[in-house]
Fold these 2 entries.
Entry 1:
Amino acid sequence: MTDTFLPTEASSVLLATLGGQPQVVTFALDALLARGEIIHEVYIVHLALTNERTRRAWQRLQQEFVDDYYAGRRCRLRRFPVGVNGVELTDIRTATDAEAAWQSIRTLIADLKSERRRLHLCLSGGRRMMALLAMSAAALLCDHQDRIWHMYTPEETLQRVRDGAMMHVTPADGVQLIQAPIVPWDAYFPALRALAQTSLQAVQEQLRRVAAIDEPQCRQVWERLSPRQRDVLRAFAKGMRPDEVAASLCITLNTVNTHKTAILAECRVAWNLPEDTSLDYRFLRERFAGFVERV
């Protein structure tokens, strides 16, 4: 690290989770810079780049940071793959994966806070579980100077910018960076920091409560499915892709897609989602991952 990037009291770090939508990062960075924040480093937290969409998103982001400059400002882009012992996680499918991901994210936040950095966390990209884990670690390690942000993008704009088609927007596009409340528990209960240094046990109950929010809708869908549709749902909830579901259940891909369409139709009813809401098998993985383990 050169002197230019040595932490100062005035500088901040943007820590952003990344999936397949690289523009979420640049939208957040542009908004923070417009507010007068001095940001010299951007940490991108992501799963393994073996995922093609994530890899393309990372490559698109790199194009915005040329020779450690962003929009004429000195700013370094750093890649932080979530993993354990040098092995990057391809997904978060099990409790062991969640533990490894949480430890990895916790270590990053702890290291940055040990340098007295002010953190801006933008957790709108990538897996929802990754955002939950980052928020849990932030609650244990961050303080009152840090911020968590939610990115709101109007549907019309969302369609135009999807997959990095546009990396910057104007006020007319309606994109807003909304501050989310953060409760720095360590400021009130210092003993929690010791728990944050050990394991995920301190936040598992919190994650169970969050997962329980979808319990009624999940059960409603489950009870309306045929036995074979439940098999397909269970496979998707375990993180399988459609082709993997077909191979696992010894059925054709067309049959899998037929079952998937029926399942997602029940989800629209259970969650009261508009017909034009885009849903795919990833919705089933995110909503039912914990539920299928209990039925």
Entry 2:
Amino acid sequence: MSRRFLLLSLCVFSLLPLSALRASECSVLTAAGNVEYSPYLWRQGGDSGEVIGANRLVIDEIARRLDITIQLLDVGSWARAQEMLKRGKVDLMAGIFYTEPRTMYMNYISPAFFKTASVVWRKSNTQASYNSRDDLIDLHGVTVINNSFGQGFDEYAKEKLNLTYVPSLGQAFLMLDRGRADYVLYEKNPGLAYAELLGYKGHFDVLEPPISAEGLHLAISKKSKCNTAILRKRLALVIADMQTEGFMDQALSKGFENWRLFLD
């Protein structure tokens, strides 16, 4: 009898609306992200402290569907955002690649809400050929601190490549433009957006094939008081629903549109 009661209780519990579960979860969560990451996320400008972009649209829609509040904050650099999540100072990361070391301090929500390609950036009219990542071995590259290109490429880069790590994409592009690096490693869409913003449009070539293509995930800090199995499951379900409905494609298109308006 007790076993039947337990099974019945679990079934009933799984059907409860989110409002009935808030006693054990949170109705207000904080989130951070890479705010130099257009068209996915960037600073609004001025003194508003607001961040906008495709990831913001996704986060706002998740909050609306779950009837909770998610405050997406500008906490500074990408490295600082990751450190704050690691320490539990923010609850969620609004877009991050999967790596095994990061699973020590965050739970990834699957499925990923976007797929994004990372590429090699090189100064235009450079004659050296590029067919695969092995062509980078004898060159000097630069990328952004705490940036990941997926665990497979990260391990390859650590073992094989000569990389300098800098605080921002702007600094990386400046080094490439001035000949202080042979190439930059960064994602294609954000790189194109910031090359235009920083005045480097036409200065660099994007090389094919990409070095990696990874899923961009929502993640929750293991030190967050809001991190429960119930919330993680609900986040996963709502993201899957949004993908099925085509919301993610619409959000990315809107992100590009808003970025062009921002530049104007």
